[in-house]
UniProtKB/TrEMBL annotation:
Residues 1-152 form the Small ribosomal subunit protein uS7 domain. One of its GO terms (cellular component) is small ribosomal subunit. One of its GO terms (biological process) is translation. This is Small ribosomal subunit protein uS7. Coiled coil: none annotated. Belongs to the universal ribosomal protein uS7 family.
């Protein structure tokens, strides 16, 4: 790489929970720079999770959301690598920042694809599904792990 890596921007924590991860999630959720709308969607989704799950789980909605993110975070991924004219899917470990980014993006992507009235409802449904280790985002993680496991024989091509 010729240029130096850009410095990581420091994000301010969100106003309600004082958590930087929430701000990172809301930034990915945001469309067309409408951050207040994104915050409202996220907080409404957590309120729905709170009323549906938090009582029987005896956890706060934020803890349920964090556990759901953890449940859909992949540990390995496959990268294409050309060796002598053949392309191999090589399983590699993922660095923590990328793990977090992948899980956040998957949760938002599969929330948008869900059926429901408002984005808050869709997001809350995806959070609850991920917490219970089911749903599309969790399936995506499982597929990624299965792919890496199937191609474990090519791990010696790691770069």
């Amino acid at each position: 790489m010729r240029k130096t890596k850009p410095k990581k921007r420091i994000l301010l924590p969100d106003p309600k929970f004082n958590d930087v991860l929430v701000t990172r999630f809301v930034n990915d959720l945001m469309v067309d720079g409408k951050k207040t709308v994104a915050f409202k969607i996220f907080y409404d989704a957590l309120d729905i999770v709170e009323e549906k799950m938090a009582k029987k789980e005896e956890k706060s909605a934020l803890e349920i959301w964090k556990q759901a993110l953890e449940n859909i975070t992949p540990q390995v991924e496959v990268k294409s690598r050309r060796v002598g004219g053949a392309t191999f899917q090589v399983p590699t470990e993922i660095n923590p920042a990328r793990k977090r980014a992948i899980s956040v993006k998957n949760m938002i992507l599969y929330s948008r694809k869900r059926s429901g009235h408002s984005m808050a409802e869709k997001l809350s449904a995806e959070i609850m599904a991920a917490y219970k280790e089911e749903g599309a985002a969790f399936k995506k993680k499982e597929d990624t792990h299965r792919m890496a496991e199937a191609n474990r024989a090519f791990a010696h091509f790691r770069f």
